[in-house]
Amino acid sequence: MSYTFFATISRMKYIERWALMRNSRQENLSEHCLEVAMIAHALCTIGNVRFGKKLDASKAALIGLYHDASEIITGDMPTPVKYYNSDIKDAYKKVEHVAEEKLLMKLPDDLRDEYKEIFLFDEEGYASEEEKTNEQYMRKLVKAADKLSAYIKCVEEENSGNREFRTAKSTISEGIAEMSNELPEVKEFMKDFLDSYGKTLDELTL
Asked: What's the whole-number mean pLDDT along residues 26-48?
């Protein structure tokens, strides 16, 4: 029997983000998920090295790679619509969950549980409360990485002379600031890495 999970996942490159906004360069879902994976890995590594945490950075990267895979089925819902009110937000979460379950069904039975751990957080089955707490914290860092990736997109658009993203940049910046109060790794990433996203290629390679 032929399974279609990876062929379906490969179609992330056809899902365009920021669909309602004028882009100087269009970003697709594959690009975004790769960036989220790298930032999530970095945040967990910062947490482990600088704050003595025991976070699974490799798993965070995997979750980042797949975190928006449901949009292959649902499409990219514009943020102002998705978060317009709690009813819409809750309904969309249910749609996302159904889409994720549908994707998982495209895997062979013996592989499905391994990928389910990446897509879905299950509070059961942890060897200790510490393990569960670390998993929850790691997934918060993945969400922070998602925000940081969106902020970087806004910076890149602004640097190209596109003012279309200025409101989004301000809103996302507020969300990141709120997250960083709970997640010191976010502050560290911003301090060490964020300014470099505004540099030219020549400046980066000096």
From this structure: 97
pTM: 0.91
Exposure pattern of 144-172 as b/e (b: 16+ CB <10 Å)?
bbbbbbbbbbbbbbbeeebeebeebbeeb
For residue 37, how many other CB atoms are within 10 A of its CB?
A: 21
Burial class (CB in 10 A: 0-12, 13-18, 19+), 201: exposed
Distance, CA of 109 to CA of 105 (rounded, Å) = 8
For residues 143-155, average pLDDT: 97
Residue 83: which pLDDT band, with cuts at 50, 70 and 90?
low
pLDDT in tens, 165-194: 999 999 999 999 999 999 999 999 999 999
SS (H, E, C) the chain: CCCCHHHHHHHHHHCECCCCCCCCCCCEHHHHHHHHHHHHHHHHHHHHHHHCCCCCHHHHHHHHHHCCCCHHHHCCCCHHHHCCCHHHHHHHHHHHHHHHHHHHCCCCHHHHHHHHHHHCCCCCCCCCHHHHHHHHHHHHHHHHHHHHHHHHHHHHHHHCCCHHHHHHHHHHHHHHHHHHHHCHHHHHHHHHHHHHHHCCHHHHHC
